[in-house]
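User: Modeling request: complex.
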Amino acid sequence: MGQREQWGSRFGFIMAAVGSAVGLGNIWRFPYMAADNGGGIFFLCYLFALLTAGIPIMILEFGIGHKYRGGAPLTFARINRKWEWLGWWQILVCFFIAVYYVVVIAWAISFTGFSITQAWGDAPKDFFFGNYLQLTGGPFELGGINTQILLPLALAWVIAFISIYTGVKSGIERVAKVLIPILFFMVVIIAIRGVTLPGAAAGLNFLFEPDFSRLTDFKVWTAAYGQIFFDLSIAFAIMITYSSYLPKNSDVVGNAFTTCLTNCSFSLLAGMAVFSILGHMALTQGVPVSEVAGAGVGLAFITFPAAISTLGSAAPIFGVLFFLALTFAGITSLISINEAAISAIMDKFDLGRKKATVLYTGTAAVCSLLFATGAGLYILDIVDHFVNNFGIVFGGLLEVLLIGWMFNLKSIKDHVNPISDFKIGNWWIFSIKIVTPLVAGYTGIMTLIADLQ
Ligand code: PHE
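Assistant: Request completed. Predicted assembly structure:
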């Protein structure tokens, strides 16, 4: 096998890693998770999860990817031959995410176009479910493939395909270096407009004011930990894969901190943008923010379009900005989810990048058609729930348990410390060995119990 590919620069790597982390999860999922889970208290739990699981696991994944230089299965196999399957498990989870994630990107592409004329009119809910998704009665009633989704879906796949096909440095890195700065810029503009609108304060209060009575609610904690895993793309094989392309002397710990903090600041920014505009809408309609905020999946595609329509003549601009931001954020994440699998296939079967990319994205693209049917949203809900509550938490839990307890963690600390500016200490070992397994295990089990009831 030839030499492993490498990133062209540190900035390029950070953009790609941030590109993976910043995704639909930050703009679409974070606000509705916060809304459903006690607003500010969710945010506090989320920050706690970031410190106790997010950052430590990111350092772990960057560390092992860099040290063992393989996609996730190969990296786990090099740590211990018996653990290769854990890498494949994470890749499987990636596959399930990719096939629905891409469809949400397709929606965002369509809505970028719809924003120009505000095609949703006065009834965004009927528009989204009826005119656009053409929802059938349930998950088993597929209906036909929705031709309105087909074109944007193809576009999303083509962009992801080309980026991966052309390689780590000339494809993935280059795309991230262009899209991510533009993305930040767009969201800053939306946030500035948002916070200067009348009613914004009520929206922001809703996002930040902690309802302390929910501090003991395990659902809030599960949601916060689940969000951290999903949000940072950890326990998905991705960050291991990306860091395996780092040059020998790389500031692994610094990169992990930068990636996590950039991602979470972005979530905060996106949350502020979304909630200030929702606050404005609530004021316009004379209802409390809580009434417009808790819309689950529909937040981005039903509530937000309605909110955009309250912006008057600026509505088309902010609509396009918002949905384009969603598209850019999604595309760079989609690239990473696929790259994790493709890299593993290349390692395992000694295939070239081009062949592996054609095979894998071709298969995934065909499977994603299932979500472009009239039953797509129902199936998406089920898969999202399964993947997020079990796939990730258990994938992550096993990872920290195996590496934390069956392996010499100190060797990873000793690997990253000499090359990093910021040194990790025993707090890191404590987080990986004790805190993360306890919290992830507890929340995983509680969710399982709640599901069984
Ligand atoms: N982190 C991405 C987001 O926030 C989602 C993602 C999940 C990306 C899994 C890759 C893998 O949207």
